[in-house]
Design brief:
24 helices, alpha/beta, 12 strands, Alkaline Phosphatase, subunit A, eight-stranded mixed β-sheet, four-stranded antiparallel β-sheet
Length: about 625
């Protein structure tokens, strides 16, 4: 294999990059710069792809790409979470370096993305995402930097007329074929190159719902059906690139952002653990080809590589200088047998912190893995590839050697985020996996409008862990949506006691108490929420209305004025402020705003009724009667 790889490297260099001495050196800029197409397939385990030896699936598109390029058998992601892992791919940085360790955390401007780097060198850049969790306007802020076009999800109401969640397609997820069609449509309008296009296919992520015929062919293995469907979308995209005449001179990278637990180690999905079930991903690299240089087809590299190596590889192959801060290394010297294969993987997940459990760190060499947890783990990966026999012993030489290497990695990184108080040890995620599975099932059931199922999952989770703030909050949200405000208040109050820094739980508690008429309790909860997150418009508006109920017009006015500083045209804020002014008998002060409001919105009955009160307070009885009559007429229509 090594001689084969050397031949591949030499032929490619001579034909495509004349004048360069090796893969490891920067490639000089050329007029015929190669297009770069990055394809990420969400939740894709390497051992569920045909060319990786899995016999129960057909993935002809991925197999063909591997036959046209290089397949890395031992590629690993640094994080088992979609946002975190994708930002690692697109920045070449470890999660603890780029800092995006959970959903909604903005990517700092100090970290440059692949799109920004390539755009500066004349590339047209576009991204096409398959899930709202990568939407740069909501859950992935900053991920769109450098892209000329970033295909975010449209802003639409997520609820139907009955207040239920709309179908997930188009709201939460796009089918892979739709993502590809969007990419093809954009490409047709931007034919001049070079291009950097990222296509993200979310399909293998749960819930597993492949469309026909994959739903029938893989009815007993729906996860595989989703992968096979995603492969068909890849086939469509590759066929388009070939028809457009850009395939041969393109760099194409296909990888998974992370794998899937599928019940191994008790983990049904992903995010909590750092076992190979969720870290081992496929990685296929196709470089520019010419028919005469076909000797490199089907090269297989068995050395361990990481997803941080993807960006350095792209930059090296396109002649773009790599930032000094990158944590990965180009794969090109490895392919050309010029670099040793001692690429250790530093894995990390802060996702357990969402539930108040300990974050995990792992160090993986080609033969050994150390997992740093409240109960540490050590595995011999050759003898025990499924990581079933924990060999950790504090005094063993292997443990101490791996801990010393782990310490070297951690010394180069920012301190980890940790919600534990000094001297406190957070629970080991291994002890909470059954609870996490139930919480995840409840989330999916709730999203699918199966409230009864969601309630059963949450109640079972609370039987196992009565002090789960997440289960209590989710159950409170269910009761709030169902209109049982007393039950909602009980659950949400307990959630706030267990997690006093949860601004959302505090807001929802305030909402439940407001709906049940507990104005003092609602006031206290909403004030707590706003202390934690002062920018909440909805909390300020609701608190303003609660103060009105408490006949505290001055504090009500303060809340509505604060809301109007954010959105001066907010009708709820304007009418709330008008009510507060009327309660304070400031009839003259409120009149001009109410008159302007009713002129711009003459069918707003609430505004007309307030205007009538203002007129009456000023002794303008005829004007008051006219406004009341207009409001009454609107009520009859």
């Amino acid at each position: 294999m090594r001689r084969f790889a050397i031949l591949f490297g030499i032929l490619w260099l001579e034909i495509v990059l004349p004048g360069t001495a090796s893969w490891g050196q920067a490639v000089p800029a050329r007029n015929s710069a190669p297009d770069v197409f990055l394809i990420t397939i969400d939740t894709l385990r390497a051992d569920h792809v045909a060319c990786y030896g899995y016999k129960q699936i057909e993935t002809p598109a991925l197999d063909a790409l591997a036959a046209d390029g290089v397949r890395f058998t031992q590629a690993f992601t640094h994080s088992p979470i979609t946002n975190t892992s994708h930002i690692t791919i697109l920045t070449g940085l470890l999660p603890s370096v780029h800092g995006v360790t959970d959903f909604g955390v903005p990517l700092s401007p100090q970290h440059v993305t692949a799109a920004e780097l390539l755009k500066k060198h004349g590339y047209q850049t576009a991204a096409f995402i398959g899930a709202v969790i990568l939407d740069s306007n909501t859950l992935a802020p900053g991920l769109d930097r450098g892209f000329d076009f970033y295909d975010n999800f449209p802003k639409t109401d997520s609820k139907d007329a009955d207040g239920k969640n709309k179908e997930r397609w188009g709201r939460v997820e796009r089918r892979g074929m739709e993502v590809v069609e969007h990419a093809e449509s954009w490409f047709e309008k931007h034919r001049t190159g070079p291009h950097f296009v990222w296509v993200h296919l979310f399909d293998p992520h749960d819930p597993y719902e492949p469309p026909p015929p994959f739903s029938e062919k893989y009815k007993d293995h729906l996860y595989d059906g989703e992968i096979a469907y995603a492969d068909s979308a890849v086939a469509h995209w590759i066929a388009f690139l070939k028809k457009a005449g850009v395939y041969d001179n393109a760099i194409i990278v296909v990888t998974g952002d992370h794998g899937e637990g599928l019940g191994e180690h008790g983990e049904e999905t992903h995010g909590l653990f750092l076992y190979d079930s969720t870290l081992h991903v496929p990685l296929i690299l196709k470089t520019p080809l010419k028919t005469a240089a076909a000797a490199h087809h089907g090269t297989v590299i068995d050395a361990q590589v990481r997803t941080t190596d993807i960006l350095p590889t792209i930059l090296s192959a396109t002649g773009v200088s790599a930032p000094a801060e990158l944590n990965g290394e180009s794969l090109l010297p490895l392919i050309n047998a010029q670099a040793p294969s001692n690429r250790a993987l530093f894995g990390e997940t802060d996702y357990p912190l969402r539930w108040g459990w300990a974050s995990l760190r792992a160090l993986r060499t080609e033969n050994t893995k150390l997992i740093e947890a409240p109960r540490p783990e050590l595995y011999d990966l050759q003898a025990d590839p499924k990581e079933l026999k924990n060999l950790y012993a504090p005094d063993s030489s292997k443990t101490q050697a791996m801990q010393a290497e782990m310490a070297k990695w951690k010394a180069k990184l920012p301190p980890p985020s940790n919600s534990a108080k000094p001297g406190e040890t957070l629970p080991d995620p291994k002890d909470k996996i059954e609870v996490q599975n139930l919480l995840h099932r409840a989330m999916l059931a709730g999203d699918d409008n199966r409230s009864s199922d969601a309630r059963q999952f949450l109640e079972k989770a609370l039987q196992i862990d009565p002090n789960s703030p997440t289960a209590l909050r989710q159950l409170g949200e269910l009761e709030l949506a169902a209109g049982d405000f007393a039950k909602a208040s009980v659950h949400l109050k307990r959630a706030c006691e267990l997690r006093p820094d949860d601004s959302t739980a505090a807001f929802e508690l305030g909402e439940a108490m407001e709906k049940s008429g507990d104005w003092p309790g609602s006031r206290d909860a909403l004030e707590s929420s706003l202390k934690l997150a002062p920018g909440q418009m909805s909390a300020r508006l609701l608190l303003g209305h609660v103060y009105l109920q408490l006949k505290d017009a001055k504090n009500a006015a303060d809340q509505f004025e604060a809301a109007l500083l954010v959105d001066s045209n907010n009708s709820d804020g304007r009418l709330g402020l008008a009510e507060a002014q009327i309660q304070q008998s400031d009839f003259a002060g409120v009149l001009s705003d109410l008159e302007a409001f009713t002129k711009s919105d003459p069918r707003n009955a609430a505004a007309l009724r307030l205007l009538a009160r203002a007129y009456r307070g000023l002794g303008r009885e005829q004007d008051a009667k006219r406004a009341e009559e207009q409001a009454a007429a609107l009520g009859k229509k």
